[in-house]
Amino acid sequence: MDDVLIDEASSVYLREAPPDDARAAMRKVHQLALDTIDALDAGDDDDEESGVLDLAGSLVLMVPMVEALLGSDEDPSPEECGVLAHMLSFPVVPELVLICTAFGRRIAEEHLREMVRTNKRVIQRGATTAAEIDAIHSERSRVYERTAQMLWGKVRRQPDEERLVSLARILRRVASHLPHNMRCETFSMLGWIFWARGKRALAAAYSEEGRCADASNLIAQFVGELIDVVASPQWLDRKAR
Asked: How far apart are CA 154 and CA 105, in angstroms?
């Protein structure tokens, strides 16, 4: 079941609702950052008891962490930058961070709940091959369709520009702590942010840097294709009127 997004064992993270209090979330994230860094330094990243933050934990903590960072006047600490970079290295997390920042926490959490429901269907149907799992994940979903349209700029709803500017500052801070070959997610996300704000040339530059860091990365491929084929999102057309 290696292809399952959140396996049954990891779903323990999902039994507790994400913390609502931003300060409590950041305290938890800060401790997880220290634990993750210590475990990775010790070479224990394959040990289930090592304390390394995995995909399921990243998905649960992502929304409160983003909200806490966006609501803070201070730059993230080196430890927080480290754990955010680690979380962004997992599939789906970068896209959810963009959705949460641009369009709000409620939509991101709806998408997360839909992912959990989809994963339960995978388990219930006993899907084991990549093709079977992909077929279940591709089934029609109102939530998936809406978030996909948002990421592709096919909605007229205006994203929150102030939050996008704040996220760009945070991502630049995170990238400053990483070697170039680990900046794929941050650069690709910056590409989407500047495309969403109508700065296509700057978006293309960041996107290209992301693809240079890792051309096989899914978020890099998505943002690169988006900028190549979509000149600007629909919400900018509405804003210009």
From this structure: 19
Q: What is the pTM of this model?
A: 0.76
- CA 221 centroid distance within chain: 15
Single-letter residue type at 165? V
Given a cut of 50, the residues of the chain with pLDDT beneath it are 1-20, 36-37, 40, 44-51
| pLDDT of 225 | 96
Unique residue bearing structure tokens 């084929």: 229
pLDDT recorded at residue 176: 92
Q: Specify the amino acid at residue 81.
A: C
Burial 152-172 (b: 16+ CB within 10 A, else e): ebebeeebeeebbebbbebbe
Our measurement of the distance from residue 227's CA atom to the centroid of its chain's CA atoms, rounded to an integer in Å, reads: 18
- Kindly state the helix (H) or strand (E) to which residue 122 belongs, with its residue range: helix 105-124
Task: Give DSSP secondary structure letters for 47-108.
Answer: -TTS----HHHHHHHHHHHHHHHHT-SSPPPHHHHHHHHHHHTSTTHHHHHHHHHHH-HHHH
- Who contacts 3 (Cβ-Cβ below 8 Å, separation ≥6)? 129, 130, 133
